Structure formats: C-alpha cells, structure tokens
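Hi support team,

I've been running sequence recovery on a batch of backbones for a student project. Most finish fine, but this one hangs at about 90% for roughly twenty minutes before it completes. I'm not sure whether the input is malformed or the queue is just slow. I've pasted the structure tokens below so you can try to reproduce it. Let me know if you need the job ID as well.

Thanks,
M.K.
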C-alpha cells in the first residue's frame, strides 16, 4: 500500500514527516479571496500560486504557515504536494445553503482540508493509501473516533463529484480510500518530544495553527486573535454579518471583538480545537 502524510503546518505533522517518511507529503491550504487578508509578500504568493495552480490572495490561517511549509521542504530536502480547494468565501456562499459551519456542522474541515486531498488521491493514486495522522500518544480517543467511522477493512470512505451526468446533476463517486495510521500513538510520542525535536531547527512555526477565527477556539482566545490578526478576524465577523448563521451558538464574533479585556492566555492549553486529524496538527 502506498503511504502519505497529511501536513497541516503544525509541529506534530511536521514531526511525522521528518521521522516517519512516506511516499507522499500533502498539504491543503485554506484560502480567502478577501484582499483585506492579502498575503503581503507577493513574490512568495506567486510561488504558492505555482504550487497550488490557483490564485492566492491570502489565507485565513496565520501567514507563517506558508513559511513553515517552505521551510519544511528545505529541511526534509523534498517537495511537499500543495493542494487547495475552493476558497472559504466560496464555501460559505455556495455550499450548504450559505450557512456558516460550526462545531455541529463542521463541514469546513471536510471541504477545505479533506476534499482537496481526496481529489488529489482520486486523480493520482486511485488505490487505498495508508495515511499518517498526527494524533499523539495521549490522543487515542481521537484515533478511536476516526477508526469507528471506517469500513470493515479499516478504510475511511469519502464521497465526491468530478463531473455532471446527462441530466446535468452531479455524478457522485464513493470510495474507500485511506487507511489511517497513528505512529505517534504506537510509539508513545508526546507533545514534549515534538517540541524538543524542533528546538533549534530551521523551521518556523506559528504560535497557533488553524484558522484565526476557528469556532473551536474559546471566546477568550478569539478575542486575543482579534487583536493579533485584526483583518483576518474581521473576515469572520463579516461572514456573520451576511446573515447566514453564526460561528458559535451563544455569542457573535462582533461581541467577542468588542469584549473589554485582553486576557493573558496559555496558548498550549487553549489551542487543541478541531479533532478531525486534518486541521492544525
Ligand atoms: S481550523 Fe476550524 S474553521 Fe478552519 S477549517 Fe478547521 S475546523 Fe474549520
């Protein structure tokens, strides 16, 4: 079986790529078309465009993620396959009735991270592939959750469409495509081991991964994000202002932005968020 690692820009998946070599390294970039979130170094933006074969205005993650993936390629001495699906703007406008994703409707991970990887697999690999996932030794429950959704052969199943049928409707294909593999759980690798490994190495990581306004984050952390990344946070505020739902059930992002305090946060304790295995490891 062919092997791949899903790289997110976080230390953990980077550790996987460095210590558990696989035939393919794939990275799916979350993009926005909002020029207020423009990636400033247009020379590097051009490199990104060549990699993903799509326009790159900016990302809704920390801009450092671009540097991380480029650094990682240098560190590993090999190319990473850069992928990107539709922009987050298109996703919110055109899919799922225009309603925003949330903790209960977490389709953004599926559409922006997982689908581009599946589509790459469908066009290029076409047979089940073993995918290294960066769950750590203390995250067995996450791995168990992922495995509970696999079929009798232990393969994850995904549904996608690539063309229209004669009636003009989407033609759907359902494929058992990947066998999740959790080397860090098997080898008892914890966060401390990973931090130690990257110390002094020439790969720059963002303090936090995931989208700046990810709804998995606490209101206190989001408030901090609104101050560190005001333009990107405003993108999330503006999406709510379009009137198609809210990211969180109990509080709007405008309210979070307007909170009258700046908490001092423990990023580590507060940053786990999405448990899909594709965002932010
Ligand atoms: S980081 Fe959060 S908001 Fe971004 S795609 Fe993942 S779950 Fe969605």
């Amino acid at each position: 079986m062919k092997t791949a690692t899903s790289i997110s820009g976080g230390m953990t998946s980077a550790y996987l790529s460095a210590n558990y070599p696989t035939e393919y390294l794939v990275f799916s970039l979350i993009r926005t078309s909002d020029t207020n979130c423009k990636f400033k170094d247009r020379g590097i933006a051009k490199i990104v465009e060549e990699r993903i074969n799509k326009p790159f205005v900016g990302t809704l993650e920390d801009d450092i993620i671009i540097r991380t993936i480029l650094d990682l390629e240098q560190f590993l001495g090999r190319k990473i396959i850069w992928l990107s699906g539709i922009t987050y703007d298109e996703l919110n406008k055109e899919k799922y009735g225009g309603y925003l994703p949330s903790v209960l409707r977490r389709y953004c991970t599926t559409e922006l991270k997982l689908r581009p990887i599946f589509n790459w697999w469908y066009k290029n690999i076409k047979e089940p592939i073993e995918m290294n996932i960066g769950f750590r030794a203390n995250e067995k429950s996450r791995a168990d959750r992922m495995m509970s959704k696999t079929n009798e052969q232990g393969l994850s199943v995904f549904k996608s469409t690539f063309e229209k049928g004669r009636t003009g409707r989407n033609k759907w294909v359902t494929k058992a495509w990947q066998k999740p593999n959790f080397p860090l759980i098997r080898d008892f690798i914890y966060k401390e081991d990973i931090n130690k490994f990257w110390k002094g190495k020439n790969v720059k990581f963002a303090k936090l991964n995931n989208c700046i306004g990810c709804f998995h984050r606490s209101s206190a952390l989001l408030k901090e994000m609104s101050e560190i990344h005001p333009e990107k946070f405003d993108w999330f505020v503006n999406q709510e202002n379009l009137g198609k739902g809210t990211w969180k059930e109990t509080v709007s992002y405008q309210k979070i932005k307007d909170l009258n305090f700046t908490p001092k946060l423990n990023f580590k304790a507060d940053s786990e968020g999405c448990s899909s295995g594709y965002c932010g490891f």
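--
Follow-up from support: It reproduced on our side and the slowdown came from queue contention, not your input. The pocket of iron/sulfur cluster is lined by residues 30, 101, 106, 108-109, 112, 210-211, 214-216, 274, 279-280 (CB under 6 Å). No action needed from you.
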